Amino acid sequence: MMHEIINLRDFGARFVLGYAGKSLTAFVLVLACSLAQAAELKLYAAASLTDALTELSTQYQKSHPQLAIKKSFAGSATLAKQIENGAAADIFISADKDWADYLQTRGLLRNDSRKKLLANDLVLIAPVDSDVKVSLDAEFDFAHSFNGRLCTGDTASVPVGKYAKQSLIHYGWWSAVESRLVGTEDVRTALAFVERAECSLGIVYKTDAQLSRKVKIVATFPANSHAAIEYPGALTKNAGAEAAAYWSFLQSDEARAVFARYGFSPIN
Amino acid sequence: MLTDSEWQALALSAQVGLCATLLCLLPGIACGWLLARRQFFAKPALEALLYLPMVLPPTVPGYLLLVTFGSQGAIGQWLKHHFNIEFVFNWKGAVLASAIIAFPLMVQAAKLAVQMIDRRLEHAASSLGSSPFKVWRTVTLPLMLPGILIGAIMVFSRALGEFGATITFVGNVAGETRTLPLAIYSASHQIDGDAAALRLIAISLTFAFLALLLSNILSRRAEKWLGVQRA
Amino acid sequence: MLDIDIRFQRGDFSLQLCTCLNQPITGILGASGSGKSTLLALLSGLLKPQYGHIVLDKKILFSAEQKIFIPPHKRHIGLVFQDGQLLPHLSVRDNLLYGYRNLLPQQRQFSLEAVVDLLEIGQLLARKPGTLSGGEKQRVALGRAVLYSPSLLLLDEPLSALDERLKYQILPFFLRIKTEFKIPMVYVTHSPREVEFLTDSWLTVSEGRLLASEKPS
User: Fold this and answer.
1) Residue in A closest to B177 by C-alpha
2) Residue A183: CB partners within 8 Å, gap ≥ 6?
3) C148, B128: Cβ pair inside 8 Å?
4) DSSP designation for A236
5) Mean pLDDT over all residues of chain A?
6) Is the per-residue pLDDT at B128 higher than 90?
7) Cβ atoms within 10 A of the Cβ of B195, count?
8) pLDDT tens for residues C54-70?
9) Å from C193 to nearest chain B CA?
10) Exposed, middle or buried: residue B84 (CB in 10 Å: 0-12, 13-18, 19+)?
11) What is the ipTM of this complex?
């Protein structure tokens, strides 16, 4: 038994020295080439921007074939925590002011680059075959107008949930529906629960609602019922020239047209 | 020391963990016994299937549960219609999700427990006039108990830690499906939630440590009970 | 009286036996692998022969022709194995009474007190098997089998785990069982000396076949 183990080790050592040595050299060569060839930038953006930013990145890469844009879409809270803990992001676009402030006070953003990029609307949605009717009025008995659950982002941490809570409080509906609320980790999960009809109502951004054919917009919350829904973005401390150029592109008229097509309101 | 919602998460975790353990117990013993003692055509396939939840990303069983046991899923609709049981956004769903994820641990422990039993003890019992069922009840089962106990503690600990399948299947609803791991997740995503997250993490560590400690002590006791000499 | 005429085949091994045992104690001698343990498994019902019959005191335990196979728990044959096989989770007392409790009161031929006295195990009753010595374990195993009031006792190398000195302390207990309780015994061993001590009647098994029933040299 011992004998076999020693032989195996011997074999292993030869293998590593012989083959792995060669492949390591090859790997280093490939790595060096790729570094020389393509610059890379990492874009961290709120989940609701997934589709618009994917299209814009593809468009941008046509004129910048050397640039690799790595995109990470998640809840703004998740992204902010990752950047705080050392994720090598170059651009951060949050779905609310709080998480941009959170990183800014920690000195992780380049203050001069921070811009309010986009605005969005908050809507109440239902599965497409639902017959729920809601009128946005403090007199309206919202809690009894639907069965089952109301779904939105987590009201303590996810931006869309925070706005939803503000609007529900604005109409005096909050305490009656709080126990029926399902908080999700990001807006897309909330949308998916309504698409699947696991929740009979949901509160999401207008842009997300427009993307899905399985849901319909029941009502749009007026801007005075919640804090302004703005998408602040900024370069991070380790952003390079490529990232700065791409960030400018996202503020260009060309990009604004694309954002508008997805239902966002670009901010000047 | 803890806020109400943190206590709520702790109590809910204990409840979900206990129920998941109870749910796993009998099927786990049956499957473990089957795998240890019976030879049949589909056995390798069955064994692979039973251990699948252990190697899959938990979001996969979570998603499949949502599709089948959700209010629009075939089984979910049937259960709702006939028994008025709902799983999605409900603590029962959290039990189901964590039971499925932890089930392989019970099967594994029960299988090992059966394999450790000297079959000649069962032969001796049957030669003394005990029917196969009585042999199982008076010899096999008692000798399996230490293994079953350890399996149950492993299932309980795993169920306490279940995150992926739970959040995918039943969401993160405070007081209903927000168990410790989900509460940690929520707290760590709040701007001023770090302190709460750390408190909950400390509780999780304590829980997990105590469970493993208990399993160790119990297995020593059980060995003593069975008269095993230990160095 | 035990009437055996069986053929059994498993893999490369085959066993073929035809004999009639009618002595109070019959020794079965054979080296390991000779098939003597297989024979005991066939008699106790843990294995099933392909052909033939086994009849114990006119009761058919197995008959291929009549498609009769009595399962082990209904054969009423006591077994004592090499290492006792006491149930580790039960006390000595509960081990002794394990088979006894499976009997109806009128089937019980011996009392716990009588067996405990005869085997001198009274001081062990409250202990767990894990704390017993090898010789104590074998006496408890023997007592447990006897309390089941079996119509036949099968002893499978009951002393081979014990050292020589201890063997000769235990062997007289088997003779006591014979004279006091009158249970017929089949004693399987590879040791001619143990057989000589107990009986004049034995068979020798080799490669699954019966050799001449002569006194071993």
Assistant:
1) A182
2) A152, A153, A154, A155, A156, A158, A161, B171, B172, B173, B174, B186
3) yes
4) B
5) 85
6) yes
7) 9
8) 999 888 999 988 999 99
9) 27
10) exposed
11) 0.87
